[in-house]
Amino acid sequence: MRSEQRRARRHRHHDATVEAAADARAALQERLGDRRARRRRETRDEILLAAREVLLERGAADLSLREIARRAGFSPGALYKYFDSKDDVVKALADRAMGALLDVLLRVSADLPPDERAVEIGLAYLEFARHNPEDVAVITMHESVAVGPRSPEHDQLEETLLGVFRDGAAAGLFDLRAADDAATMCYGAWALALGLATLEQRQRPTTAAKLRAEQGRLLRAFVNGLKSEREPSLPATTAPPRTGHPEGS
Question: Distance between CA atoms of 189 and 224, rounded to whole angstroms?
Answer without folding.
Answer: 12
